[in-house]
């Protein structure tokens, strides 16, 4: 009886082993390894997908881990290119960098909301729940329904960096797990406020209203000029200026096709940076 | 030769049966290995009773989500169980055969609707209804409870109905022969005799509700705060995993697995209670 059990268990183990072996394998040597910010990652994945279509022989290996992990990976030669959604620190200034795009954050409210402008301080007070009624901001007498993104999302971390500083978003905030869901909810709920990627404001059936921040409306121009305060730079970082396959991928990103892809994905991409 | 074939087929079936058990073992071991380190690091009490969930600041307290799961599930039970039980009594005691043949498949169909469809429907109809009529953001405990109440109906109805139908005919015949009316028979003979099956039905329904993710992720609002009214948004244990798994890494991901452990324990406890109650009979 005991032996029979052992045989069966061994069978199971073998099946598992064969399956897991066949799952990995087939890795090619000459790949470009890109690692870093999970905010930048999805955009680079889109670029890599299109790049692989144009050059089927190319292998781009994209990993997450966060901006700091990406920069460390570049310094220790475990990645060719690092992705960063924050600016380089003093100790990292010796690295080569290129800004692939800017990511603007739009603050959106329901179209019926009369509030036109918020200061960054007011916005922070809304999200810490120090200000809880629209009448305190020149709007109707109604509770503010604050909508945030989930922990770990790049848009959330951008909002934390750019607006919240050291403060925390209130626990009572409604949490949605995509830009689209936030946009949909703000379009439906007259007393809500949310933040989404700038490029996604006009996508969707029903309109939302974009609030000016410190008097500046977010547009492609005001983000590129750094006049609008709520934006982040998406950087590519490397030990030295990339050559070979990494350079070719970089050239693709800064080509017209690459720029258009990034713009379609909701980022603000400058036409061509020398 | 024949004997060998018999033996072989026995072993093949045994191996296949074992593989389904080993799937359970594999998943259990995996979530425990992934989740336990963070519970040990944060501390069991801090993890279960911590009020603040902020993985980016290293805070992993899931108490608001336990409250969220309990309130939403309780709401679903309050709304769903009476309806389901009445439906089961109707089907087993009152309904003519033709009507029963219409109702049964319809209820089974209810169980076949994918949960994401329930959630989408809730988002488009129930949430705006609550927002416009009762106020608040609409995404709320109430919205989740209404949807889960509908989702647990098939479980509650079919298991209670089966347990009522399984009663010996003599119970009912005896009661009627003693001069009890039909309603008196149901109330004082049939329901008490079928009690354990009905309780099991409710527990399994509750287990279904507490484990549901997709339908409620869309309508609960997912705020990590202890609610003060049924119109407040809440987050349940399941939606915590569902909403944050996309970008979670390191300790954050471990904490989501740890949330899974808590959920696992709750559902195991519910299911074994249901089994214990049905066996005791």
What's the story with the biggest beta sheet of chain B? 2 strands, antiparallel
Query: Strand portion of chain A, in percent?
Result: 15-25%
How many H/I helices of chain A? 9
Taking the alpha carbons of the first and last residues of chain A, their distance comes to 74 Å
C-alpha-based Rg of chain A, rounded: 23 Å
Helix/strand order of chain B, N-terminal first: HHEEHHHHHHHHHH
For the secondary structure, the number of strands of chain A is 11
Which strands sit side by side, in order, in the main sheet of chain B?
1-2
Distance between the termini of chain B: 46 Å
Query: What is the mean pLDDT of chain A?
Result: 84
Tags for this model:
heterodimer; A: alpha/beta; two-stranded parallel sheet; elongated; B: 281 residues; mainly alpha; two-stranded antiparallel sheet; 2 strands
What does this structure look like?
- Chain A has 274 residues and is α/β, with parallel strands linked by helices.
- In chain A, 35% of the residues lie in helices and 21% in strands.
- Chain A has nine helices and eleven strands.
- In chain A, the strands form two sheets. In chain A, strands 1, 2, 3, 4, 6, 7, 8, 9 and 11 form a nine-stranded mixed β-sheet that branches.
- The longest helix of chain A has 22 residues.
- Chain B is mainly α and 281 residues long.
- Chain B has a single domain, classed as MetI-like (MetI-like fold), CATH 1.10.3720.
- Chain B has a two-stranded antiparallel ribbon with strand order 1-2.
- In chain B, a hairpin with a 4-residue loop joins strand 1 and strand 2.
- The mean pLDDT of chain B is 92.
- At the A-B interface, helix 1, helix 5 and strand 7 of A face helix 1, strand 1, helix 5 and helix 11 of B.
Helices and strands, with pairings:
The complex is a heterodimer of chains A (274) and B (281).
Chain A: H1 2-23, E1 32-36, H2 41-54, E2 60-65, H3 67-75, E3 81-84, E4 96-109, E5 117-118, H4 120-127, E6 145-149, H5 154-164, E7 174-176, H6 179-188, E8 192-197, E9 209-210, E10 212-213, H7 220-224, E11 231-238, H8 245-253, H9 256-264
Parallel strand pairs in A: 1-2, 1-3, 5-10, 6-7, 6-8
Antiparallel strand pairs in A: 3-11, 4-8, 4-9, 4-11
Chain B: H1 2-42, H2 44-49, E1 53-54, E2 59-60, H3 63-94, H4 97-112, H5 115-133, H6 141-165, H7 169-177, H8 182-193, H9 195-211, H10 214-217, H11 237-244, H12 251-280
Antiparallel strand pairs in B: 1-2
Helix pairs in contact in B: 1-12, 3-6, 3-9, 4-6, 5-6, 6-9, 7-8, 9-12, 11-12
């Amino acid at each position: 009886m005991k032996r029979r059990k052992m045989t069966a268990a061994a069978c199971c183990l073998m099946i598992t082993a064969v399956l897991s072996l066949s799952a990995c394998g087939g890795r090619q040597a000459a790949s470009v390894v890109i690692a870093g910010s999970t905010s930048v990652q999805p955009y680079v994945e889109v670029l890599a997908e299109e790049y692989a279509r144009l050059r089927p022989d190319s292998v781009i290996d994209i990993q997450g881990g966060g901006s700091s992990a990406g920069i460390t990976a570049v310094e220790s030669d475990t990645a060719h290119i690092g992705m960063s959604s924050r600016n380089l620190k003093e100790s990292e200034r010796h690295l080569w960098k290129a800004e692939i795009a800017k990511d603007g954050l739009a603050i959106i409210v329901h179209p019926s909301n009369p509030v036109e402008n918020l200061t960054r301080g007011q916005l922070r007070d809304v999200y810490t729940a120090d200000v809880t009624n629209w009448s305190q901001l020149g709007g109707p007498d109604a509770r503010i329904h604050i909508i945030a993104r989930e922990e770990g999302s790049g848009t959330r971390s951008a909002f934390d960096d750019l607006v919240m500083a050291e403060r925390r978003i209130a626990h009572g905030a409604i949490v949605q797990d995509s830009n689209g869901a936030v946009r949909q909810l703000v379009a439906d709920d007259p007393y809500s406020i949310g933040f989404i990627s700038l490029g996604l404001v006009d996508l969707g059936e029903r309109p939302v209203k974009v609030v000016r921040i410190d008097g500046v409306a977010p547009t492609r121009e005001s983000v590129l000029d750094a006049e609008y305060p709520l934006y982040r730079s998406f950087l590519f970082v490397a030990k030295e200026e990339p050559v070979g396959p990494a350079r070719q991928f970089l050239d693709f990103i800064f080509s017209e096709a690459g720029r258009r892809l990034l713009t379609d994905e909701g980022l603000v991409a400058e036409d061509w940076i020398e | 030769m024949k004997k060998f074939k018999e033996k072989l087929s026995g072993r093949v079936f045994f191996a296949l049966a074992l593989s389904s058990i080993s799937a359970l073992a594999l998943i259990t071991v995996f979530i425990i290995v992934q989740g336990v380190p963070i519970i040990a690091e944060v501390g069991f009490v801090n993890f279960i009773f911590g009020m603040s969930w902020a993985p980016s600041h290293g805070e992993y307290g899931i108490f608001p989500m336990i409250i969220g799961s309990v309130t939403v599930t309780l709401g679903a039970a309050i709304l769903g169980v009476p309806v389901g039980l009445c439906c089961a009594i109707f089907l087993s005691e009152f309904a003519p055969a033709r009507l029963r043949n219409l109702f049964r498949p319809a209820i089974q169909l209810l169980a076949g609707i994918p949960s994401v469809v329930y959630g989408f429907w809730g988002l488009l109809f129930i949430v705006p209804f609550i927002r416009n009529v009762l106020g608040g953001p609409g995404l709320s405990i109430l919205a989740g409870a209404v949807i889960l109440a509908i989702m647990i109906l098939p479980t509650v109805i079919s298991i209670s109905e089966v347990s009522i139908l399984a009663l010996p005919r003599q119970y009912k015949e005896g009661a009627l022969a003693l001069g009890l009316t039909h309603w008196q028979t149901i109330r004082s003979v049939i329901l008490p005799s079928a009690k354990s099956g009905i309780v099991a039905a409710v527990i399994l329904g509750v287990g279904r509700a507490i484990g549901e993710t997709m339908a409620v992720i869309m309508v609960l609002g997912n705020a990590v705060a202890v609610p003060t009214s049924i119109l407040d948004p809440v987050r349940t244990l399941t939606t915590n995993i569902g909403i944050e798994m996309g970008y979670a890494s390191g300790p954050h991901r471990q904490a989501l697995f740890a949330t899974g452990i808590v959920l696992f324990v709750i559902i195991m406890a519910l299911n074994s209670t249901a089994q214990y109650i049905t066996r005791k009979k």
